[in-house]
């Protein structure tokens, strides 16, 4: 299905990519509808997957800065001790891969001092590697795509002649770069290495653990003609963006088909998420939408950190499940170890927690808050099940899940194009009998009546939202007592 929607205020089209395989995952396993990347950018989030810790604990707090220090315990080391073979395919982003030079698309410390920041996966208990230090084009990854869209905010890396060498290598080990079978869709190039790793593990009857970290849809965003043809009615930038997303989805389907062919699909835990929200600002294609959520990549507002979250494991998850409590990429580490019956190392603090109580329906509310910090933007977030406290240079704001729920109604006017003061809002109105009265404010087009009536919908939405988060509405109860009966009617004088 291909949908076209139109924003009522801006009249700007909002396109959706064809992703049948990811859609199928969402109907067969767990959908985390409040899933968060540990940071609003790539490197810190990826480190949280490896360590189960907040980026400010393991020291990678910004893209292309720092390294995964030797003092950290990566999940690959833990599962390898348990008998698993390990692999990492695609983007690495946790240190340099060469002592000679840093990735040419990087900047700052990595490029200037590759020896100091040397930290390849093969020195972090990864048995098989096929990795890049950072980004590559999403089509023909070793070749420069040439100018894409020339705008003042564009990344300088998009300048150059089409077909020239991009400058970033795929590494398989110390000084070992790959140049064969590197044309076409980069997601396919990555999966061409991941699948043989899985095949070999199954052939040897060895349990396997793999990170498959696609570059798509990170810039430079380039779509192949086959996939662009699916979006021929789109503007040219959107063709490329959604084409490469569909190509990625195709590889997800290919992976699942191979797992089934190898007869290991039922007992394979398969996760899917993103490392941050859409990179609309400064992105060469200037495409990507966070929908009704505020903010984009680099912002720790919802649009910068709230990402898709899916899990399929047929042997353990027999029916579709939705988890609405906030979850984060730091949760991968303890959740996976819990699945294997491996306790967390007890010599450090872990910010993630096992998600199985939420999946099993035994947990009603997250016991560990989720913290986000962006020192460069002087922003901080502290999140509980219902509330999110945001501190910015503009002040401190308390965002309520009710506001987010109301914003998702199709007739409610919301999104980045709407002035802040006109977006849905929720605040305390007064204190009532056994409860707190909340005032919800929103705008719609037209009158709230007839076919356009949304008030009743939103009351049900608020009710269900509170119910999902284990918050009971305290309906008032009154007790009537007769203190003095007095004379009966028969005894009174007319």
Give an account of the 3D structure.
The protein is α+β, with helices and mostly antiparallel strands. It folds into two domains: 15-368, Alkaline Phosphatase, subunit A, CATH 3.40.720; 394-468, no CATH class. It is 24% helix and 17% strand. The chain contains 13 helices and 20 strands. Strands 10-12-3-13 form a four-stranded mixed beta sheet, covered by helices on one side. A hairpin with a 2-residue loop joins strand 7 (171-173) and strand 8. Helix 6 packs parallel to helix 8. It is globular and about 95 Å long. The chain starts with a strand and ends in a 26-residue tail after the last helix.
Sequence-ordered SSE layout with sheet pairings:
Layout lengths: L3 E3 L6 E3 L4 H9 L1 E3 L2 E2 L5 H10 L3 H4 L16 H7 L3 E7 L17 H4 L15 E5 L38 E3 L2 E2 L8 H18 L4 E6 L11 H4 L7 H26 L8 E4 L28 H4 E2 L1 E4 L8 E3 L3 E2 L3 H8 L16 H4 L10 E5 L4 E5 L3 E6 L2 E6 H7 L17 E8 L2 E7 L13 H14 L26
Parallel strand pairs: 3-13, 4-14, 5-6, 5-9
Antiparallel strand pairs: 1-2, 3-12, 4-11, 7-8, 10-12, 15-16, 16-17, 17-18, 19-20
């Amino acid at each position: 299905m291909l949908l076209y929607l139109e924003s009522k205020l801006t009249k700007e089209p909002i396109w959706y990519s064809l992703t049948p395989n990811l859609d199928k995952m969402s109907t067969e396993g767990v959908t985390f509808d409040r899933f968060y990347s540990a940071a609003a950018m790539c490197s810190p989030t990826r480190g949280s997957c490896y360590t189960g810790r907040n980026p400010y604990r393991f020291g990678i707090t910004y893209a292309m800065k720092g390294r995964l220090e030797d003092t950290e315990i990566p999940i690959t080391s833990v599962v390898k001790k348990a008998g698993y073979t390990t692999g990492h395919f695609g983007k690495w982003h946790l240190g340099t891969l060469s002592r000679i030079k840093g990735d040419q698309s990087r900047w700052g410390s990595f490029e200037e001092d590759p020896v100091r920041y040397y930290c390849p996966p093969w020195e972090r208990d990864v048995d098989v590697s096929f990795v890049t230090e950072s980004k590559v084009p999403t089509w023909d990854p070793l070749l420069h795509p040439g100018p894409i869209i020339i705008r003042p905010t564009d990344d300088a890396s998009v300048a150059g002649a089409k077909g020239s060498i991009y400058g970033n290598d795929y590494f398989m080990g110390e000084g070992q770069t790959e140049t064969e079978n590197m044309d076409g869709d980069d997601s396919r190039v990555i999966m061409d290495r991941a699948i043989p790793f899985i095949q070999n593990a199954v052939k040897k009857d060895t349990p396997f653990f793999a990170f498959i970290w696609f570059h798509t849809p990170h810039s430079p965003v380039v779509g192949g003609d086959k996939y662009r043809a699916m979006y021929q009615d789109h503007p040219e930038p959107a063709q490329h963006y959604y084409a490469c997303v569909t190509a990625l989805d195709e590889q997800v389907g290919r992976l699942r088909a191979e797992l089934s062919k190898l007869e290991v699909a039922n007992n394979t835990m398969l996760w899917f998420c993103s490392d941050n929200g859409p990179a609309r600002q400064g992105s060469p294609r200037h495409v990507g939408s966070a929908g009704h959520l505020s903010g984009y990549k680099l912002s720790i507002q919802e649009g910068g950190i709230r990402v898709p979250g899916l899990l399929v494991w047929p042997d353990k998850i027999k029916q579709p499940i939705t988890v609405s409590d906030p979850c984060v990429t730091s949760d991968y580490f303890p959740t996976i170890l819990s699945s294997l019956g491996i306790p967390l190392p007890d010599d450090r603090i872990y910010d993630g927690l096992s998600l199985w109580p939420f999946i099993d329906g035994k947990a009603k509310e997250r016991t560990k808050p989720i913290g986000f910090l962006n020192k460069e933007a002087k922003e901080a977030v502290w999140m509980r099940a219902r509330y999110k406290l945001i501190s910015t240079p503009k002040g401190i704001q308390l965002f309520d899940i009710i506001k987010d729920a109301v914003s998702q109604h199709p007739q409610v006017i919301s999104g980045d194009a709407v002035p802040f003061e006109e977006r849905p809002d929720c605040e305390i109105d007064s204190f009532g009998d056994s409860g707190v009265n909340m005032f919800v404010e929103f705008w719609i087009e037209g009158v709230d009546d007839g076919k356009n009536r949304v008030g009743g919908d939103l009351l049900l939405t608020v009710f269900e939202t509170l119910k999902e988060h284990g918050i009971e509405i305290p309906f008032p109860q009154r007790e009537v007592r007769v203190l003095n009966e007095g004379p009966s009617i028969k005894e009174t004088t007319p």
